[in-house]
Design brief:
The chain is α/β, with parallel strands linked by helices and 241 residues long. It has helices spanning 2-13, 17-29, 34-47, 50-61, 90-106, 121-136, 151-165, 180-189, 216-237, and strands at 72-76, 110-113, 142-145, 170-176, 193-199.
């Protein structure tokens, strides 16, 4: 019983559940904008439940993985926590570990691409890479691109780095699964032969009762999907890919 009560409290009286309740109360109490409050409550609820999150994110994560070989691994950055022992944020750290595993397995160069707005992301991530390489006993070369502030700039500046060091633009591209589709479009635009290697899938596919109650994690995943769709659309409109 205590478990059930704690779950109900978490889902209904913490954000975003509490905001849905407020919007529904406004629908019943207010005389004006009733339909707007109801529509907002329904949309917010849908974006916060697991089945709808899965429906949205499945279109981005469904990327064909080929069996081709590559001459380098490129890992895209995802932010840092400068005070942590490991500097990369959890999502970005997962990318880095997977990228290092690929580089070690195939004995090919490891390239990290990420500048960062607030911090020098590449400099901080290089500390993580050095620590991990001690454990993995790495004997491959590592490179760090530190100018990019967006995925498009990842492609642009990584292309320049490959030209500078004479690397072959045939790569395993590592990023989080929801982001892989846009990243592949951009890197192909800059002349790379891309073998996508997504990591960190968010699609679940199986549901229990609690998955139909609003949760902030689902709202965040839905937000990232919407952001990606607009990102891909903007690339098409601006003819950048």
């Amino acid at each position: 019983m205590i478990f059930i009560l704690s779950k109900i409290f978490t889902y209904l009286f913490l954000p975003p559940g509490v905001f849905i309740i407020v919007l529904l109360m406004a629908f019943f109490v207010c005389r004006r904008l009733k339909l707007l409050f109801l529509f907002s409550a329904i949309v917010l609820y849908l974006l916060c439940i697991t089945p709808i999150k899965d429906l949205l994110i499945s279109h981005l994560e469904n990327v064909k993985i080929d069996n081709g070989s590559a001459d380098a691994v490129v890992v895209l950055g995802g932010g840092v926590y400068p005070e942590g022992y490991f500097k990369a944020r959890p999502e970005a750290f997962e990318r880095i570990v997977y990228g290092l595993m690929l580089a070690k397995r195939y004995n090919i160069p490891f390239v990290f691409s990420g500048g960062g707005v607030k911090y020098n992301e590449s400099r901080l991530v290089s500390l993580d890479v050095r620590r991990l390489c001690k454990k993995l006993v790495c004997d491959f070369k590592t490179y760090f691109e530190d100018k990019s502030l967006s995925t498009y700039q990842n492609g642009y500046y990584t292309s320049a780095l490959f030209k500078m060091y004479g690397l072959v633009k045939n790569i395993y591209l590592v990023t989080t699964a929801y982001h892989i589709r846009r990243a592949v479009l951009i890197f192909k635009h800059f002349g790379f032969e891309v073998h996508p290697r997504p990591i960190g899938f968010a699609f679940e596919g199986k549901y229990i009762f609690w998955d139909f109650l609003p949760h902030m994690d689902n709202f965040y995943e839905s937000y990232k999907v919407i952001h990606e769709f607009f990102g891909i659309l903007s690339l098409k409109i601006l003819h950048k890919v």
